[in-house]
Design brief:
The protein has about 260 residues and is α+β, with helices and mostly antiparallel strands. Among the domains are: about 55 residues, Uridine Diphospho-n-acetylenolpyruvylglucosamine Reductase, domain 2 (2-Layer Sandwich); about 100 residues, CO dehydrogenase flavoprotein, C-terminal domain (Enolase-like, domain 1), CATH 3.30.390.50. Helices cover about 35% and strands about 25% of the residues. It contains twelve helices and 14 strands. The strands form four sheets. The protein has a five-stranded antiparallel sheet. A four-stranded antiparallel sheet has the order 11-12-13-14, sandwiched between helices. A three-stranded parallel sheet has the order 1-3-2, with helices on one face. The longest helix is centred in the last third of the chain and has 20 residues. It is globular. The relative contact order is 0.12. The model has no long low-confidence stretch (mean pLDDT about 95).
């Protein structure tokens, strides 16, 4: 590590002011702190949101589930309201990383970081959620813009995420054993506007699969999902899996998600 200054504001306004002055936001720290230790990131000023209580909490607003940006993964996983309204989201949160990660990591930090293999982006995109910041509301389809890239502007802070309650939803994750990130994860949701299928871990960022969505909107069956060709040309290939293997996983995980919804 190296020398840096640390602010720990207790109110959102103070955090926004510190971020506007060039401070680097620290949420759960599950990516930022390791990158600092490895000298991959060297911010001179950190703004820890851990003391901003207004960013923590889970509530229902109409037919939507609203989760504060600083709510920990373990709290999402165990919350009775999340389990009642969107059990697939609770399941997703309960299988992020290990216990230590779930005890410190936050939903806002995960979304702002937008790791291409993270779980939460697939839930936000798959459910058609809205990301709320200190400035505006951003639809999920507009929020994710590529590897570690989002629509957030400099100094903009995520305050909450609003998830519309789906008719049914399921998350299927094929885990990369060492990191516990998704080798391929598929979040499938039957929403009022139709079926949404979001994929994480397979490409340069989370994305929706139009072919699967179109097929499942016509016929919501395992056979319908299985019949969709998954193009591997733009998918990741590395020491863990080839692009073709990831393409096959997208198909298999989607079929399993459909089966769970039907079951």
């Amino acid at each position: 590590m190296y020398a840096f200054t640390l602010d720990r504001p207790s109110a959102l306004d103070a955090a926004v002011a510190a971020a506007a002055g060039g401070g680097q936001i620290l949420a759960g720290g599950q990516t930022l702190l390791p990158s600092m230790k490895m000298r991959l990131s060297q911010p001179g000023h950190l703004v820890d949101l851990g003391g901003v209580k207004e960013l923590v909490g889970i509530a229902q607003s109409g037919d939507a589930l609203v989760i504060g940006a600083m709510t920990r993964h373990m709290d999402v996983a165990s919350n009775p309201l999340v389990n009642a309204m969107i059990p697939a989201l609770a399941h997703l949160a309960g299988h992020i990383g290990d216990r230590q990660v779930r005890a410190m990591g936050t939903i806002g930090g995960s979304l702002a970081n937008n790791d291409p293999a993270a779980c939460y982006p697939s839930a936000v995109l798959g459910l058609g959620a809205s990301v709320h910041t200190n400035k505006r509301r951003i639809d999920a389809d507009d929020f994710f813009q590529g590897m570690f890239t989002t629509a957030l502007e400099a100094g903009e802070i995520i305050t909450a995420v609003s998830f519309p309650q789906p008719k049914k939803a399921a998350y299927m994750k094929f885990v990369q054993p060492a990191s516990r990130f998704s080798l391929v994860g598929v979040f499938l949701a039957q929403t009022a506007a139709g079926v949404r299928v979001a994929v994480t871990g397979a490409g340069s960022g989370v994305f929706r699969h139009k072919g699967l969505e179109d097929a499942l909107n016509k016929s919501f069956t395992v056979a319908s999902a299985a019949a969709v060709h998954i193009d591997a040309s733009d998918l990741n290939a590395d020491i863990h899996a080839s692009a073709a293997y990831r393409a096959n996983l997208i198909s298999v995980q989607t079929q399993r998600a459909v089966a769970q919804c039907l079951g």
